[in-house]
UniProtKB/TrEMBL annotation, chain A:
It comes from Paracoccus lutimaris. SUPFAM superfamilies: MetI-like. Keywords: Cell membrane, Membrane, Transmembrane, Transmembrane helix, Transport. This is Sorbitol ABC transporter membrane protein /mannitol ABC transporter membrane protein. The keyword Transmembrane applies. InterPro entries: BP-dep_ABC_trans_perm, MetI-like, MetI-like_sf. Belongs to the binding-protein-dependent transport system permease family. The keyword Transmembrane applies. The lineage of its organism: Bacteria, Pseudomonadati, Pseudomonadota, Alphaproteobacteria, Rhodobacterales. GO terms for cellular component: plasma membrane.
TrEMBL record, chain B:
One of its GO terms (molecular function) is ABC-type maltose transporter activity. One of its GO terms (cellular component) is ATP-binding cassette (ABC) transporter complex, substrate-binding subunit-containing. It comes from Paracoccus lutimaris. It comes from the Bacteria. Coiled coil: none annotated. Signal peptide: none annotated. This is Multiple sugar transport system ATP-binding protein. Residues 4-234 form the ABC transporter domain. Keywords: ATP-binding, Nucleotide-binding, Sugar transport, Transport. Belongs to the ABC transporter superfamily. InterPro entries: AAA+_ATPase, ABC_transporter-like_ATP-bd, ABC_transporter-like_CS, ABC_transpr_MalK-like, ABC_transpr_MalK/UgpC-like, Mo/tungstate-bd_C_term_dom, NA-bd_OB-fold, P-loop_NTPase.
Length: 274, 333
């Protein structure tokens, strides 16, 4: 550390950081607490100590099978991300290694599609899904999620590929590497970390996507985001069950995120920080 | 063997002609330095020889064979880059082994060559480290090691020392010179630093705006520059140029006087001038002097001469060391 920080300041910063972290984490924590309450406790009012009952989890599991939406979430998020990578790797590769005058414009144009609210294209996409029989199918939703996240995937990969210095590729050429060896021995190993963090971030984005999954599925292709929504039913709100369903839905991605923190932080900075 | 012959080599990027046409012969075992200000085309010329850029027209021969269309890996040349261009995901050993692996060499032969190169370059203890764990000088040595193991026809260096600090630069400069004496392989070295060029080269090629201004040994360029550009570029501090009536006395459009070829005295004969700035280096003192007759001059004075700002002194150029140029800037014999 370049600056000397006094002990008091350190304590102050620590308290501030913990406070901010707790405030941000509190909704998730309260969801978990509520999921361990009885329905009676849940509607009674603010209470941090539940009766630690697993009643809600049992009801949730018996009412709606958890396994099917879970598998749908896995298939949709992993599938759409892999599809996106298959399309985006060659695209980003071409833009990073043989850019033209229009490369920047194309990148901006792709990103601009993310600036539009999703609901603006709801009707056309809904109609396309309806007419082509894609409604409530895994394949339809996988392709849609892939297209939604594609701009971000291309942008992330582009910035990662751009970080690979041209002189290293020239050195490989001087050392007698052909295009195939250049890709296998030099480019691929240097691109892997970037591809990995892109993959992780996009699995999470696809997993959490709820607008389209709720609009375009009913039962067959419904992932966990739709599973949560199904508990805000017309019969009234059951807070404890809704919380239990939410906890079950965010659990897997929270664990994945925890174990891949390092790659994720790098992914979120879009490769800007080395 | 490592003879390289360029015939009418021309390079244009779109409309922009970077190198209008160069003829150059580099003999086996020579240490040739391409020197010139930035943007003079020296790096481009090196990249054309390496094959990293295609030439627009002309011919490149390496060891008598036409290499104009050969890919970089097939020219038998090894290159050391300014940024070192090491493979960051490979250990030092694997970095050095990479060209050998690409050539399909056996493991045993690879290892023998790597050990040998590591010994020559003092890298034996670092073979299992990654480039990121090495200092600048060590990275530079790895880059040189990767070039040596191939036993190339010639080495190409693209400003290899410009990322090092001043002290290390001197050390590495000497190491590269010693390496050349040991290996006796052709080396082509690009730099914008005329001190590097003067100290290392057998032959200097001075480039300016894509043209060869002069080719010669360091002392030839110093003693007999072909034109104003070379005269001004070689030598530090720069040569003083004087035009007008004083030059006419020597039947020339411009005359050049090097700072070290001027006798400085307090009251002798010569041009009178007032000291604008005195830089004391200990052994020498460099003086910037305003002379009413010839304009501003830079001269080298004796270190022990107590000269200061605003002193009036006399400058007398050595008669046998006056360079004469015509109105086109070419040297007069």
């Amino acid at each position: 550390m370049a600056r000397a920080v006094s002990k008091n300041a350190k304590i102050g910063y620590t308290i501030a950081a913990w406070t901010v972290a707790l405030v941000i984490f509190f909704p998730i924590l309260y969801t978990i607490i509520t999921s361990l309450k009885t329905e009676q406790e849940a509607i009674e009012g603010f209470n941090l100590i539940p009766s630690f009952t697993f009643e809600s989890y049992q009801t949730v599991q018996s009412q709606n099978d958890y396994f099917k939406p879970f598998m749908n979430s896995v298939i949709l998020s992993v599938g759409s991300t892999i599809l996106a990578l298959i399309v985006a790797i060659p695209a980003a590769w071409a833009m990073a290694f043989s850019p033209t005058k229009r490369t920047k414009d194309i990148l901006m144009w792709m990103l601009s599609t993310k600036m539009m609210p999703a609901v603006a294209v709801l009707v056309p996409i809904y109609l396309i899904f309806l007419r082509t029989g894609l409604m409530d199918t895994r394949i339809g939703l996988t392709v849609l999620l892939m297209l939604i996240n594609l701009p971000i995937v291309v942008w992330m990969l582009y910035t990662y590929f751009r970080e690979i210095p041209g002189e290293i590729l020239e050195a490989a050429r001087m050392d007698g590497a052909g295009l195939r060896e250049e890709i296998v021995h030099i480019l691929a190993p240097m691109a892997v970390p970037g591809i990995a963090s892109t993959l992780l971030l996009n699995v999470i984005l696809a997993w959490n996507e709820s607008f389209w999954t709720i609009q375009l599925t009913t039962t067959n292709a419904a992932p966990l985001s739709a599973f949560i929504a199904s508990f805000s039913s017309p019969q009234g709100l059951f807070w404890a069950k809704l919380s239990a369903a939410s906890t079950l839905a965010i659990g897997p991605i929270l664990i994945l995120g925890w174990f891949s923190q390092k790659q994720l932080v790098r992914g979120l900075t879009f490769g800007a920080v080395k | 063997m490592g003879q390289i012959v360029l015939t009418k080599v021309r390079k244009a990027f779109g409309e922009v002609e970077v190198i209008p046409g160069i003829d150059l012969q580099i003999n086996d075992g020579e240490f040739v330095v391409f020197v010139g200000p930035s943007g003079c085309g020296k790096s481009t010329l090196l990249r054309l020889i390496a094959g990293l850029e295609d030439i627009s027209s002309g011919k490149i021969e390496i060891d008598g064979k036409d290499a104009t269309d050969a890919p970089p890996g097939k020219r038998g040349l090894a290159m050391v880059f300014q940024s070192y261009a090491l493979y960051p995901h490979m250990s030092v050993r694997k970095n050095i082994a990479f060209p050998l692996k690409m050539a399909g060499m056996s493991e045993a032969e690879q290892n023998a060559r790597i050990e040998n190169a590591a010994r020559v370059l003092n890298l034996s203890n670092y073979l299992d480290r990654r480039p990121g764990q090495l200092s600048g000088g060590q990275r530079q040595r790895v880059a040189i090691g990767r070039a040596i193991v191939r036993e190339p026809a010639a080495f190409l260096f693209d400003e290899p020392l410009s990322n090092l600090d001043a002290a290390l630069r001197v050390v590495m400069r000497q190491e590269i010179s010693e390496l050349h004496q040991k290996l006796k392989t052709t080396m082509i070295y690009v730099t914008h630093d005329q001190v590097e060029a003067m100290t290392m080269a057998d032959k200097i090629v001075v480039l300016h705006a894509g043209r060869v201004e002069q080719v010669g040994s360091p002392l030839e360029l110093y003693n007999a520059p072909a034109n104003l550009f070379v005269a001004g570029f070689i030598g530090s501090p720069k040569m003083n140029f004087i035009t007008g009536p004083e030059a006419a006395k020597y039947q020339a459009h411009t005359i050049g006087v090097r700072p070290e070829h001027v006798e400085v005295s307090k009251d002798g004969d010569g041009w009178e001038g007032k000291i604008l700035l005195a830089e004391h280096l200990g052994s020498d003192t460099f003086l910037k002097v305003a002379c009413p007759v010839v304009g501003e001059m830079t001269v080298r004075g004796n270190g022990e001469m107590g000269l200061h700002h605003n002193d009036t002194i006399r400058l007398k150029p050595r008669a046998d060391r006056i360079y004469r140029f015509d109105d086109k800037g070419l040297a007069l014999k």
